[in-house]
Amino acid sequence: MLYVALATALAPVLMPPAKAQVSSTIGTVGEFTATGETYGPPHEQQPRWRLSGREAELLEGGRYRLKEVQLEFYRPTGEREAWVAAPECIHDAARGRAHAAGPMKIESGDARAAIEGEGFQWEQATATLIISNRVRATLQRALTNPPPAPLVITSRWFVFEITNRRAVFHEQVRGEDAEFEFTCGRLTVQSGGTNVLFDLAQAEEGLAIREKATGRRVTADRAIYTRADERAELIGDVTWTEPDQSGKADRLVFDRAQKSVLAEGRVALRLPAATLGLHAMLTRATNASAVELLAERVFSQTNLVLATGRVRLQAGTNDLACDRLVATLDSARQAVDTAVAEGNVRVERSDGSLRAERAEFVRAANRVVFTGRPEWSNAEAQGSAARLIVNPETGEFTAEEEVTVTLPLRGPSGGLLALFPEGTPSNAAPQTLRVFARTLSSGPGRATFSGSVRAHQLPVTGDEPRLACDTLELQFGSDAASTSSPAPAPGRLERITARGGVVCEQGRPGVTNGPAAYRRLAAQTLTALAEPATGALTSLHAEGAVVIEQSANRATGGRAVYQAQTRVLELTDAPELETPEVQISGARALLWDRTHNRYAMSGPFRARIKTETARELAEKVRSP
């Protein structure tokens, strides 16, 4: 190999050999041939080198001019390991120096490596060879049939330090083969004496590499490659670009033996949004064309990617931040199979935010699971749970265990729990609702709570409207239908359905007058409908053992329908009504007009007068 041969052979090339055998006496003009010492047994007939020149002219001061110089180096078995050729040179034996202005060439015995240039100088004291101009090195990486295109390196000048086997290309360095090309200000290659072209290579003063097949470009302040561990390290303002992705870091390490890549210091990777699927961690599909991954450190090995230190994943207005992100890729490294974000996980989107201690994405299940008491919000709505599961494509999610959600209810209805026959003033201000449950399932325009559901209208004072049931479903208007945030947007509430042991209360038990007067509605199913345009309550439907209590009034039946516009409550299925004035039962249907405090019954009924005369009661009670 070139550098092994140079390291062992160039020292005597331009100085008189210590034990040379000259075939003719050197005079003003004469042929010159010399051989070096031989190898030891059993190769004592094989010289280590042979130096020849067509002419050797003795100059003043003990200097020599050698012409058509050729120096050959041999292995113990006789094969030529390397040779050096030059048209001529001037050798100053007293000063241990040789130089020439013309061309010269160094070539390895297997013809895999060669260096050419114009003008050289040999310094015997430091064992250094300098090629002054127009350096061109040709390196053949492997002998195949057909052989691949060689690596050609050019530079303005070149230094070879024989003792430490180091070669340095200086200024305007450029290299190219069939696969890539590079430029830099200085390139150092060094051999440890092994039978390879070099053991270490270092590029400095602005390295730029282009891979021809992929179009990938890499730049750095400097780079170091060691052959022993097949490791390349790029340092200082490292950047790389490809047709569809790019990146930058302070330091980049390629470990070919371990099949790993390490980027450190202000790492920024820009990838197509769909390439790896990491955008799924943002809990919703994005229209952004690219995803950007920022971190202090990114490590990749085989099918594993690990990012640590102030990790951020950005796609358009969507942003994921965490302390650590690890992803496993499919066999083709084209998509993420699983991804886990840990430590201070935060998702920010234009329509809300989410925080947790851990988030895990599983592509096969198409879901992201947040744990560590996740909390989410958008606009004025907030929520929390022990566990949150999100479908990144549809935006649908499920919250599990210790679910708490706070959200405003827009419209003049005065809130969800103003469902009693008295109604509420039409100018009631928007209210805020807080719901507790074991689970919550939500999607665009809907939210379903289940498991020991409790809902309170804020502020919680003890006499606020409140609801308890097994399942509570909220449906929102079109102004909320476009969102897929875990907390429903503050859209207009259009439909409320409560099922299973429904109890709706307001006021304090035992209080009969004033704002805290107690009112209660119980049923198996309760449905409230609102006006889509305004959110105002339009009707209430209760079924299954309906009980309505307000102060001294009590109404029961199998079914109740309340119309907010007329303030008329209709009870059917064995309805009964008891007020301080009268007790009514036995009718097929009973209508209670709360505006005029009048009653109407259909079919036979029984009425028991309590405190009023028949004439006064007749003004209130009539049959249809």
Strand content of the residues, in percent?
over 45%
Please summarize the sheet with the most strands: 43 strands, mixed
What number of domains?
3
Report the helical percentage.
under 10%
Quantity of strands, as a count: 43
Look at the structure and give the CATH class of the largest domain. Answer: Mainly Beta
CATH superfamily of the largest domain: Lipopolysaccharide (LPS) transport protein A like domain
Output the structural class: mainly beta
Low-confidence stretches: 1-27, 411-419, 423-427, 480-490
CATH architecture of the largest domain: Sandwich
What does the overall shape look like? Answer: rod-shaped
N- and C-termini, Cα separation: 114 Å
Computed CA radius of gyration, to the nearest angstrom:
45 Å
Total count of helical runs of at least 4 residues = 4
Oligomer: single chain
Mean pLDDT: 81
Which fold does the CATH topology of the largest domain refer to?
lipopolysaccharide transport protein A fold
